Amino acid sequence: MSHWYWLILGLLLLLGAFHRRWRVLLLLGGGAALLTGLVRFAVPGLPGWAPGALFALLFAVGLALVLTRHRGKGRAAAAAVARRKVDPLVGSEGVTLEALAPGRLGRVELAGESWNARLTTSRPLPAGARVRVERVEGLTVFVSPLR
Q1: 140: domain range?
Q2: How many degrees, rounded to 5, is the angle at CA 85 between CA 84 and CA 88?
Q3: Are 25 and 70 contacting, i.e. CB atoms less than 8 angstroms apart?
Q4: What's the distance, CA 56 to chain centroid?
Q5: pTM (2 decimals)?
Q6: Total of domains in the chain
Q7: What whole-number distance in Å separates Cα of residue 29 and Cα of residue 55?
Q8: What Rg value do the Cα atoms of the chain yield, rounded?
């Protein structure tokens, strides 16, 4: 394949990067194809397999760089969103949907949603008892009875 194939492929992939969902992959592929085309132009005597191997290598290296740079950022952002959603629950009041016993998992209703709940006191509560959220850990709220 001539260098024009790689250059045109690279431009098409870069143009396709305007599509939001596949932006990173298309940018990586477009950049790798353009570099492959430039190498193919600069070194015309390359064996037939070399441009494809060079493209795959450049794409893999670019992908590895992107992944290592962004490692953990998605998890940190998801954790921040989760904290913003559950932090307002602390101090809010709810109702037990079933009897709660100390050390056992039960269900409470908070702001119209059903949550896993554990008691922070040693006294059991009947279904329908009013409770206050003391803390949130994951998908479980820790509640105490309202006085």
Answers
A1: 89-145
A2: 85
A3: no
A4: 26
A5: 0.46
A6: 2
A7: 8
A8: 28
Cβ–Cβ < 8 Å for 60, 28: no
Residues in the chain: 147
pLDDT-derived band at 74, boundaries 50, 70, 90: low
Those residues with Cβ within 8 angstroms of residue 104's Cβ, 6 or more apart along the chain or in another chain: 118
* Residues near 115 by beta carbon (within 8 Å), at least 6 away in sequence: 94, 107, 108, 109, 139, 140, 141
Q: Are both 60 and 98 inside the same structural domain? A: no
Instruction: Give the pLDDT band (50/70/90) at residue 1.
Output: low
Q: Are 132 and 95 in contact (CB under 8 A)?
A: no
Write down the pLDDT at residue 90.
87
Question: Is 94 within a domain?
Answer: yes
For residue 135, is it within any domain? yes
**Dihedrals φ, ψ of 142, to 5°?**
-105, 125
Cα 41 to Cα 16: distance, rounded to the nearest angstrom: 24
| Same domain (yes/no): 50, 102 | no
Residue range 18-38, pLDDT digits in tens: 777 778 888 888 888 999 999
